[in-house]
Amino acid sequence: MLEKKTNKAWLYLLPAIIVLIIFTIYPIINTFIISFDYKYNADQAAFGFDWGLKSYQSLMRGSFVSALWNTVLIVVISVPLSTFVALLVAIALNSIKPFQKIFQTIFFTPYVTNTIAIGMVFALMFSSTDGIINNIFGISKDWIGLNSSYISKMFVLQLYILWNGLAFKVLILLGGLQSINKQYYDAAKIDGTSKGRIFRKITIPLLSPTLSYIITTSLIGAFKTYDVVISLFDAKGQRDMRTVVGFVYDTINGGSPYSVGAAGAIILFVIILLVTGVNQYINKKAVHY
């Protein structure tokens, strides 16, 4: 009986497994092989049999390092900051009753809005000539122009990522907060427990599975950042803010050896794999199910 159920389970999973192999596992393996063939011909999908580490060596001599630095900076700043802000917003929304649904809708709006369109609006807001931000504060700062500083452009980029990613995180965290049994809070109030202690000892531990999911997906998403950079900076022809994904895309479409782009993709894949693995290891000790 058990064997029949197992066979049925594999039968139901088979379509998904086939799709996973064709569109995920095979491309990863193929990209890994291509990254070692420096003369791979992408137009003819033919190997040049120039095997070695030339592609990886080219990465270290090119603009990949700066792209990797931009990506790491986005991950290190945006993930903890956006998670913390989203948690505060979710707690605030969960504590109010009047107009709660309206505020939820307002905060969820960015999630259903085109990312490129939002980026273009942000670019206009931070324009040095007639931008809303400059008009509000009465200044004439070049925030994201060709002559603006790296810190200024990174600030706008992080602000955009924070605002754009807030909607999904708030929605998930709000659902997690509403699923916590109210009896825990009632018992804590009877014992005269302070709000800070309730937050640390009840809310955070019981919300830890949701926070784990948010952090894991945020890490992966931050490492793959691409469209927000394109919408803010690429229209101005800037390359100093490129991420690893942008570097890979420009490399495989810009006449450079295809294998170099493949090597960049593999390095990004390995980094994401390692960071996600470490995060999951930490979660096993910190998450309370």
UniProtKB/TrEMBL annotation:
Gene Ontology CC entries for this record: plasma membrane
Main location: membrane
GO biological process, one term: transmembrane transport
Bilayer topology annotation: Multi-pass membrane protein
Pfam short name (any one): BPD_transp_1
Signal sequence region: none
Keyword Cell membrane set for record: yes
Entry keyword annotation includes Transport: yes
Residue ranges of every copy of the ABC transmembrane type-1 domain listed in the record: 68-279
Gene3D superfamilies reported in the protein's UniProt record: MalF N-terminal region-like, MetI-like
Subcellular localization, as worded in the UniProt entry: Cell membrane
Entry's transmembrane regions: 9-29, 67-93, 105-126, 155-177, 198-223, 258-282
Residue ranges the record marks as coiled coil: none
Keywords assigned: Cell membrane, Membrane, Transmembrane, Transmembrane helix, Transport
SUPFAM superfamilies reported in the protein's UniProt record: MetI-like (SSF161098)
Family label: Belongs to the binding-protein-dependent transport system permease family.
Protein name per its UniProtKB record: sn-glycerol-3-phosphate transport system permease protein ugpA
Organism: Haploplasma axanthum (Acholeplasma axanthum)
